[in-house]
Write a structure and sequence with these properties.
homotetramer; Cytidine Deaminase, domain 2; five-stranded mixed sheet; 5 helices; 33% helix
Chain lengths: 150, 150, 150, 150
């Protein structure tokens, strides 16, 4: 088990599952992940941390490309890590960019997230003490999802 | 002036600007644009039609790519046509995919649209007689927009 | 017929089809299209012009998005315009960005282009007098194409 | 240290660094990673494995989206994992999709890779015994890279 998952597990033995402390800890992990950001073009660093129902944590940061469109946001990096390791049971994700303003996922990330569940909680944060929580469904109402292609 | 813009202008000389007939006509134009869809992978044809405040109409269809991620949806095709011709005053867009279900833009398109105004009206249609209208803001609440990078 | 197509037609009545003058004219049209660029983030303006075997011209410019990944390059704007108007017989495309250096299409655009033919000529330009010509196949060797999904 | 990195390290204590056995082992790891593929739309599973100069291994699989354009290929998943964990010293990547034909990265992935070095080796494989090796530069000649935006 990696250290982030262990850290949340230890917290959770003392605090209630799914509570406020868990959300704050996930923001803290996203803040640390933000340090790895590769963003030479926008200079805008973003970090994210996914928490699965099975108790695993996966982190991400934004990674930019000179030609812009291949750029992958922090949220999608965290999601792809999680899914490619075999975990599709995503419960929530914390995202934090600017220190002066709450960061919300872009539409590309919302679309990517909805593929894995519109009830996933998105913790949109500025800091450990300043954040708002929405479901993917609230951030992408009337979504175009997997069922639309059938 | 192209024939689509002329068609709407003629209608508008008789009907009230911004009214229901205008929306239905825009859906009709989107339905025609859908025929040009290049969608050999999903077999899901989508059409779109943009209407600018200055009275111009631009159409689009979805264009897919074998490697999936370069795929461009109908809405973005219509938007890029409009903007690359020098028109940024987009008032509304109609989009229509399936004949059995109302189609909504994906998150990528919503993000692309918000760049040009969160008050743009999105006419999500199944047919000329079955559609729902939302603003971009309603479809992408708490958006990550141009001001977030400053 | 739009004015760009007419301009090339007129030239072509005097000059040989597919010759150097035609390429230079296509670069000139791409340079004009570049003026419409929406690139507030990179400040890097790019223009493109597609010429079809049937003699039609379609232009494009790059259109950026605050969240970077929805950004669409000039080449893809020109291609989608062309295809969504019903023309898939693309013969060549001219692209021009910087005035101090020849511009080449990014990998996303090369992948988008190969969908419509690896023999399409790409005129990579700095100005009317400074350019290099490659086929899509030369710019994207060993491509992943439509046949790979079968 | 994760088990994949350890596996290569153990091999490398016996075999020469950078040799054929190392490449075959990387293909084997990519084949295992392929199993995690989320590809309900194309049904085309792809796996990838990155090896850094510092001896770390990161894997990826393709993860698709119903709206196609947010789809992220196996190569980009492996790259983003690696970079977001703080490793930018990528030496090589193995990619394997179909069992009947060698798989090559798409143009989007080539563009994403070039950001981190045009000398990175790309092992394009069908199986452990059938593969070809190219540099990113060979797969994306005349690339549009970081220096073009300056």
């Amino acid at each position: 088990m990696d250290s982030n998952s262990r850290q949340i597990k230890q917290h959770n033995s003392r605090i209630k599952r799914g509570g406020e402390m868990e959300d704050k800890l996930l923001i803290k992990i996203a803040l640390e992940a933000r340090e790895k950001s590769y963003s030479p073009y926008s200079k805008f660093k973003v970090g994210a941390a996914v928490y699965t129902k099975s108790g695993k944590v996966f982190t991400g940061c934004n990674i930019e490309s000179a030609s812009y469109s291949p750029t992958i946001c922090a949220e999608r990096v965290a999601f792809t890590k999680c899914i490619s390791e075999g975990y599709k049971d995503i419960e929530k994700i914390a995202v934090v960019g600017s220190d002066v303003k709450i960061s919300f996922p872009c539409g590309v990330c919302r679309q990517f997230m909805v593929e894995f569940g519109e009830d996933i909680k998105v913790i949109c944060a500025k800091s450990i003490d300043s954040y708002e929580i929405y479901t993917v469904k609230e951030l992408l109402p009337h979504s175009f999802g997997p069922e639309d292609l059938q």
